[in-house]
Amino acid sequence: MADQSGSLDRIRLQRAAFEAAANVPDPEIPVVTVNDLGILRSVELDTAGRAVAKLTPTYSGCPAVVAIELAVEAALREAGFEPVIERVISPAWTTDWITPEGREKLREYGIAPPVSGSNSKLALFGETSVSCPKCGSSDTERVSEFGSTPCKAHYRCSACREPFDYFKCI
Ligand SMILES: [Zn+2]
Prior knowledge:
Layout: H1 7-22, E1 40-45, E2 51-55, H2 64-78, E3 83-87, H3 100-109, E4 111-112, H4 119-124, E5 140-144, E6 152-157, E7 163-167
Parallel strand pairs: 2-3, 4-7
Antiparallel strand pairs: 1-2, 5-6, 6-7
The protein binds zinc ion.
């Protein structure tokens, strides 16, 4: 095990590395960070002092995965760390990992945040009510299974007639 003398520095450095990685915005929805979405699992310094960032992609086919990894790598390097990116696919990411702050940011951006828990699977098939991010009405209808990206379904609110995206990745 490492000696204790440098442990405070180590904690401070580790925190700096985490902050640098955590502030990376999602390439598809720039109002939320990789930390808000729960994609960033951890950042730890290894024995060689490299910053090892563990990332879990929202889903394996998501084209944003590589972009996110490159962005986190660049952010760590810019903060003075030698980055190591590890893709962790188990346990699989779920929308439950999106932080409360991340959900709020999505709503403000006009994207209905995912229904949490087991309901998210129902939401994917349009079998649960999705609240309008603009007026809060649950009287909404799914227009298309795919919104502006494959991660989102396109909905329209029957109350205020506004179209919106529902973040459906599970
Ligand atoms: Zn509405």
